[in-house]
UniProtKB/TrEMBL annotation:
Source organism, top-level taxon: Eukaryota
SUPFAM superfamilies: Actin-like ATPase domain
Protein name: Actin-like protein
Organism annotation: Plasmodium vivax (strain Salvador I)
Listed InterPro entries: Actin (IPR004000), ATPase_NBD (IPR043129)
Record field: compositional bias (Low complexity): 75-92
Taxonomy of the source species: Eukaryota, Sar, Alveolata, Apicomplexa, Aconoidasida
Region annotated Disordered, chain positions: 75-169, 337-367
Biased composition (Basic and acidic residues): 351-365
């Protein structure tokens, strides 16, 4: 009986490869599996990289970008945006020295500018002189290096003088690469790049006993056609695969919940995207996105971490100046006792004071405040700021998934706990307010690049009969793992619905249903494509379709990608 129900799990039983190239991670595996076999760090072509995007004559830049791709096999996916950290850690360690060497000059410039912004954000006019003195004392060497770097850049002949130089191995600090205003049109360049990149991905899978002859590619249909076409063409021409098929990455998650009318919200690394699907047909003309996501949250985390140390140093300097000024005017007689002025409002003062016996919560507050002061004063200011700036993106992702969350203001659910995060033998303080304020940038980012504006925009586009798509809402992407994201999304959506004056929208708030497939949000697109790949209605593209331009036309039009139950 046991042999009768035993499942055969041989690799030869899986018919297709499944490939998803995301903004941060690339997943590859076989169809029918519940998780990818390997996870790779996606090269920096989604963000501006001069060594790649400006290499019209020197094609070596494409190979320099791919040469730094870290890899990991059989990654243990923990169901978070940072779940692929362990898979990419080996490649990160190998390239750490190279990355630090290549990004040292640009990183110092960012440190100087960010420190000035943080220090200048304090509205207290009494501390202006303290801030000015601190900036003049700490920013001099960085300013000299920045001036030297600026002179060097201006004297170097380049195609675009407005864009900073960034090496191929640099992941942190790169400019966002927006397809809307700049991308390289050289199809041969993109083909060479994807040829090298896919070789790095498939070079170990093709050695297995699996005889799969087809690759299912998960595509973002709103990137330039030249990029999608070059990827598919390189897979067809450079390997022994008989054919390929492609799937829309915002349609594939619907195969997990068997729902043909839904709003799919992708909270990704560089952007948040929204696509309504009605009766299995994606409404591409209602597609909405904003430039916001995990990348911006990580930047905000670093900014807030440095701000709390700078704020502590400013208050300590102000308290010290207050002591000096009061001591010069107060004269005590021999029989009188002198007590220094205390600043008890924020609890950051370290001046001597007479302890009074307290009980209960007052005693616990004093103890926790004393520990907070101890750890904030544990390292010199300049040293701890440099440590925070040197934290890699994967480390920030790990911190974000463990300790950061979105506060529920209506239910008053928030935490007052202060945590310590260990990084390279340093204990970094994460204050209670910092833990929830960083993720709020998803809803408060300027220039209408936030989720609140995205909901207002989609509701203004939809027609009366199309509002039924909001009966089902499905979240995908790494940022969907942030604690409290569902309640915050619902709060933002309901607020946008209340602002609509149409009568049919008033009852929609009670009909909104969030879908929760038993798959981690950052894997729902990949697993959905794995299920979809077993269907027979996906067309095959071969060498013939490349030569007669059918593949290019279909990628440009997206003629068949619909969801069927």
């Amino acid at each position: 009986m046991e042999g009768r129900f035993k499942k055969s799990d041989s690799e030869s039983d899986y018919k297709y490869y499944v490939l998803q190239i995301g903004r941060k991670y690339t997943y590859v595996g076989f169809s029918g599996l519940h998780k990818p076999l390997s996870v790779y760090r996606t090269p920096d072509f989604f963000r501006y990289n001069e060594s790649f995007h400006n290499c019209a004559e020197d094609k070596k830049g494409a190979y320099d970008v791919v040469g730094d791709v870290p890899e990991g096999e059989a990654a243990s996916l923990r169901g978070s945006a940072g779940s692929a950290d362990s898979a990419a850690q080996q490649g990160e360690d190998a390239n750490q020295g190279k990355r630090e060497k290549g990004s040292n000059q640009d990183q110092q410039e960012e440190d100087a500018s960010q420190d000035q912004q943080v220090e200048g954000a304090n509205p207290d006019p009494n501390q202006v002189s303290v801030d000015q003195a601190q900036r003049e004392k700490g920013a001099t060497p960085d300013q000299q290096e920045a001036d030297a770097s600026l002179d060097q850049r201006q004297n170097t002949p380049r195609r675009e003088h407005r864009l900073p130089r960034s090496g191929g191995s640099k992941h942190e600090g790169s400019l966002i690469y927006h397809y809307e205003y700049k991308f390289h049109q050289d199809e041969k360049l993109w083909s060479k790049f994807f040829e090298e990149f896919t070789f790095q991905i498939f070079r170990k899978l093709i050695k297995t006993s699996n005889k799969a002859k087809k690759v299912i590619v998960l595509l973002n249909m709103f990137i330039p056609t030249i990029i999608k076409y070059s990827l598919c063409k390189s897979l067809i021409e450079n390997y022994e695969y008989g054919s390929i098929s492609y799937i829309n990455d915002l349609v594939s998650p619907l195969f997990l919940c068997n729902c043909n009318t839904c709003v799919v919200i992708d909270l990704g690394y560089l952007s948040c995207r929204l696509l309504p699907v009605m009766n299995g047909m994606p409404l591409y003309h209602h597609y909405t996105y904003v430039d916001n996501g995990g990348f911006y949250i990580n930047m905000e985390i670093k900014r807030l971490l440095k701000e709390q140390y700078v704020r502590r140093a400013q208050r300590r300097r102000a308290a010290r100046d207050c002591e000096d000024s009061s001591a010069s005017f107060v004269h005590a007689s021999d029989g009188e006792g002198l007590t220094n002025v205390q600043n008890t409002e924020d609890g950051y003062s370290e001046t001597p004071h007479e302890e009074k016996p307290t009980e209960g919560e007052k005693g616990e507050t004093k103890t926790s405040q004393g520990l907070l002061n101890y750890y904030l004063d544990l390292y010199p200011l300049e040293e701890i700021l440099n440590v925070i700036d040197s934290m890699p993106d994967d480390e920030i992702e790990n911190m974000k998934m463990k300790f950061f969350y979105l506060k529920n203001e209506e239910a008053k659910l928030y935490s007052n706990k202060i945590v310590l995060y260990e990084f390279q033998n340093y204990e970094i303080v994460v204050e209670a307010d910092t833990r929830w304020m960083a993720c709020e940038i998803l809803f408060t980012k300027d220039y209408e690049q936030n989720i609140n504006f995205m909901f207002n925009s989609i509701l203004s586009k939809l027609h009366m009969f199309e509002f039924s798509v909001f009966h089902n809402v499905l979240l995908v992407g790494g940022c969907s793992n942030i604690k409290g994201i569902v309640s915050k999304i619902a709060q933002s959506l309901f607020h946008a619905l209340r602002e609509k004056k149409k009568t049919s929208v008033k009852d929609l708030e009670n009909r909104v249903n969030f879908l929760f497939p038993k798959i981690s949000p950052n894997l729902r697109q990949f697993i959905g494509a794995s299920i979809c790949s077993n269907l027979e209605n996906l067309p095959d593209y071969t060498q013939e379709h490349v030569h007669n331009s059918v593949l290019y036309d279909h990628l440009n039009e997206d003629v068949y990608l619909t969801f069927k139950r």
